Structure prediction request, 432 residues.
Amino acid sequence: MKILVLGSGAREHAIILSLLSEDHDHEVIAAPGNAGIERDVRCLSFDINDPVATANVAIDEAVDLVVIGPEAPLVAGVADELREQGIPVFGPGKAAAQLEGSKTFAKRVMDAAGVPTGRAQRATTLADVEEALDAFGAPYVVKADGLAAGKGVIVTPDRDAALDHARTYLTSGSVLVEEFLEGQEVSLFLLSDGHRVLPLSPAQDFKRLADGDEGPNTGGMGAYSPLPWLDETFGTEDEFVDEVIRTVAQPVVTQLAEEQTPFIGLLYAGLILTDKRETPTDRGIRVIEFNARFGDPETQVVLPRLATPLSQLLMNAATGTLDESDRPQFGLTTAVTVVLASENYPATPVTGRPITGLDSALEVEGVHIAHAATTDAEGTLIASGGRVLNVVALGTTFTEARARAYEAIDRIGLEGAQFRTDIAKRAADAEG
Ligand code: AMP
Ligand code: GLY
Prediction:
């Protein structure tokens, strides 16, 4: 199979590594990629947010499948043009991608499909925001309605900070004020062919910049999978996953199909598990957000554990032929990823600095590296953005995977680099 992967982050690198690890001779190409991806596959340079340009490349290259990594090309309608041209594509069209692109759209679909989520109020003026903040009470949750590259959400006990955040985003649209939900977060990825859904294994992301969940929200500073503590509440991972399919994923996919905007691609359910139960059958699962693509950095820990060939799952989703018998299988390994970020990320990351020590880091058993923002400057690897790379470590236990990840990250040099030291710490501590 010849597969074109669109995007330039560690998520796309993880997808590519997973495709290359299969027992098949796939030809994988990428656009635009990064320095790490370039070491593994041929990279092309064109505007991946331009539907016609992308379709032309897919035709010229005679690719069998296009996999769209980030949200921007989805919202720009790249998948629609590819489908129009008869090219199988993993990624929803513009209309269904509004599930991620517009929080108001997502709330409407959830309401229509009866999906459990926090109460929310849309506001277009500061006075509306104030009223909603006071109605829900502290801590306050304010979200920009449109795409905001992970910066659109504030969760704060400080009413003035919540108002300032709202003021910023009201200049360009509306905001959503939400009820604060307390509990553990879970990222669950579901493959959809427009009608049926199949689950991947759950992961947990670390959104805040600093240890102990302090500091600003980021794109994600680390992740681990699976989530052993889910078993305490749900018995097994499969029971949890089936409950999410029954109450969240299938209703949403069915709703979008009925609206003639089928969701073909990856439905990312961002969930909070709350103790506040509303009915005897309520198991506390609440949606905090949907994304229309694989999550970053969760993909980096989910895909290395996947035993089923990824290419077949993506192709079956793209061609409307997912089947319950394809249910993805996962290995018993644990996976931990730690993100290495540039100085001053997420505000104004310092870029252009050299990265050293990768070869030494790769010598640590069970470790590989997914590149995010790296470029090659005449043989020197340079950090070119906020989240620079992900160290990914596999192990038989979280204690082992964590030790490997941190051993490897200590071998990497980047002036001013930041990383969290508590990724998967609780999961490891629970192992005793
Ligand atoms: P989002 O971009 O919607 O995933 O929000 C970013 C982060 O803000 C989430 O991962 C949560 O940690 C937090 N968050 C979002 N919505 C809520 C909510 N209603 N209650 C509590 N925390 C939230
Ligand atoms: N890890 C959060 C996201 O991909 O949106």
